[in-house]
Amino acid sequence: MIILGYHGPVVTSKLSEDRSNIKEYDEDDLTTVKSRSSKSSLLGRRSALKLLGLAAIPITAQSVVADTVKGYGQQGYGSGLYGGGDNEQEDSETNKSPKIDIYETEEDSPPNPHASIHVKWSVSDPVTNLREIRIDIFDVNDAELVESISVSASDSSNSGAETVTVHRGSGATYRVQLTVRNNTGQNSTEEQHVVAE
Known about the structure:
The structure is a single chain. This protein is mainly β. The protein folds into three domains: 1-61, no CATH class; 64-94, no CATH class; 99-195, Immunoglobulins (Immunoglobulin-like), CATH 2.60.40. The chain contains two helices and eleven strands; from the N terminus they run ββββααβββββββ. The strands form three sheets. A four-stranded antiparallel sheet has the order 1-2-4-3. Strands 8-7-10-11 form a four-stranded antiparallel sheet, with no helix packed on it. The longest helix is centred in the middle third of the chain and has 8 residues, at 87-94. It is elongated, with a radius of gyration of 37 Å.
């Protein structure tokens, strides 16, 4: 008969006269690493865990599942930052793109070889402030960027108008792209085609 006692990473088995806690094990289950006397033997850690009914669990598998019933905040530990639960919604609100409320383009070319395109906008972002409104004008025939302007913005809404001139650009069709960007880096883009007479 053998009684096991746990002493750190090595389990020592000793004979004892106390028979109330004695368990019997096959000799195949015990791996003798070192023997000091006939009454003492050392077991490896894996064998000791096996005898105690514990499996060797990899560290990556030892994660604890968060309690979603009890914990800090309105909800459990795993529901949100400190159990608050509303942080996912706040993050999704913060990561929303700004909104283009009004976007109008109009050909406004004078009787000369230049093309003038009038752009009007109204943009907003209810969550964060806007950073920039950009107007890019591309030639439809070769997709080349022919003109670009940028307007700074710092509030949660912005309205304005700009007339962009493309030198020697009359008689062509242009793709006019309006892009609005907010402080978190999110942006929205719309485009229209304009024929310059």
